[in-house]
From TrEMBL:
A GO term, aspect molecular function: NAD binding
Keywords: Cytoplasm
SUPFAM superfamilies: NAD kinase/diacylglycerol kinase-like
Any one Pfam family match given in the protein's UniProt record, by short name: NAD_kinase
UniProt cross-references to InterPro entries, sorted A to Z: AcoX-like (IPR039065), AcoX_kinase (IPR011391), ATP-NAD_kinase_N (IPR017438), NAD/diacylglycerol_kinase_sf (IPR016064), NADK (IPR002504)
GO terms for biological process, alphabetical: NADP+ biosynthetic process
Name used for this protein in its record: ATP-NAD kinase
Source taxon at top rank: Bacteria
Length: 358
């Protein structure tokens, strides 16, 4: 019986890290060239840890084409990149491209999906793949959920897990999420990091860029170094990823207390703080406004009115992701990256290649 090759997926959102919030705030952009570089570092790490096949979607920005071209080069051969397969997807240049790629990868039985994007991209992938773990890489505008780290080390952690050398109880982390329910419409959506309640009546341009438009924020976790809406709680009422609960905050420009918050890269605004507190799992919270819009992970998605009465509930049944720090700490303890004389990257083999006449 033939063994199935060790297969992972890579999804890079071509549009992540390039929206108007970064342009207006003078923040750096994540170009297609930058994403190609990240993917190539991932492929080198995957190849070094025994991954045999990688699935990727096509795109209209040249990411897949550049990776394919570079896969035929000397560096790719020297690094033993896995075999690449590009999924045939009818591109719409919307989030549906990401969702479709994630569904196809799940159907193909990948063991892991590496995601290059922000909070919204990771949420779109997670919604389609059940308990397939995510390897999160930050290339978006709101980057609270994907931690900022070097793709090479992330790829090593993911590859060692997929190859069976790191047990799931060490390598995987179950994440929290926020469930948004609108019973009058039979609607249940969820967010990985934050849900914001805005007085703006329409979805419109989706992004929230003015603190004055915010009335309430719920978060699964909030770190002081965060950028985006979760930074409100992160700088006032922080809560860790590992904590069982989350946090909430009430906001009003007229409040006597105010907080300076980085709502986007390079965009600092003062926010009036009325109150803040803990968010317990399983407890439904009503909204401070009778009508307005709800932003999930930084983008307005749901309009509501007085008849809708949405609620927000924290639970601990979010997606699985690779805990890179824990995985690599285990790899160090177990010497998982120790290599013998037969390994092509052993220093003696490298020396003989560099000095073929000796």
């Amino acid at each position: 019986m033939n063994r199935r090759p060790l297969t992972v997926g890579i999804i890079a959102n071509p549009a992540s890290g390039r929206d108007v919030r970064r342009l207006t705030a003078n923040a750096g952009l994540f170009s297609s060239t930058d994403k190609v570089s990240v993917i190539q570092r991932l492929l080198a790490a995957f190849g070094a840890t025994g991954i045999e096949q990688v699935l990727m979607p096509t795109d209209m920005t040249g990411i897949a084409a550049a990776v394919l071209k570079n896969s035929q080069g000397r560096q790719a051969r020297a690094s033993h990149w896995p075999a690449l397969e590009f999924l045939d997807i009818t591109l719409r240049q919307s989030v549906e491209d990401t969702r479709k790629a994630a569904r196809l990868m799940a159907e193909r039985g990948v063991s892991l999906i590496a995601v290059l994007g922000g909070d919204g991209t990771h949420k779109a992938v997670a919604a389609e793949i059940g308990d397939i773990p995510l390897l999160t890489l930050s290339t978006g505008t709101n980057n609270a959920f994907p931690e900022l780290r070097e793709a090479t080390s992330a790829g090593l952690a993911g590859g060692l897990f997929v190859s069976g050398r790191i047990p799931a109880e060490i390598a995987l982390r179950r994440n929290k999420r926020l469930l948004v329910r609108v019973p009058s419409r039979g609607l249940c959506e969820w967010a990985l990091v934050d849900v914001a309640v805005s007085s703006l009546p329409f979805v419109g341009a989706r992004a929230i860029s003015r603190a004055a438009d915010l009335a309430q924020v719920f978060v699964t976790f909030a770190e002081p170094q965060a950028i985006g809406l979760s930074a409100l709680c992160g700088l006032w009422f922080p809560v860790s990823r590992q904590a069982p609960g989350g946090a909430w905050m009430r906001l009003d420009p007229q409040s006597p207390e105010a907080l300076l918050v980085p709502l986007a890269p390079g965009l600092l605004q003062g926010c009036g703080v009325l109150a803040a507190g803990s968010l317990e799992p399983g407890v439904a919270h009503s909204l401070a406004l009778a009508s307005g819009t709800l932003a999930l992970d930084g983008e307005r998605e749901i309009e509501f009115n007085v008849d809708d009465r949405p609620s927000v509930t924290l639970d601990n049944h979010g997606p699985l992701s690779i805990d890179v720090n824990a995985a690599l700490a285990y790899a160090a303890q177990q010497r998982l990256l120790a290599i013998g004389r037969e390994h092509p990257q052993h220093p003696l083999n490298l020396l003989s290649r560099d000095n073929p006449g000796e």
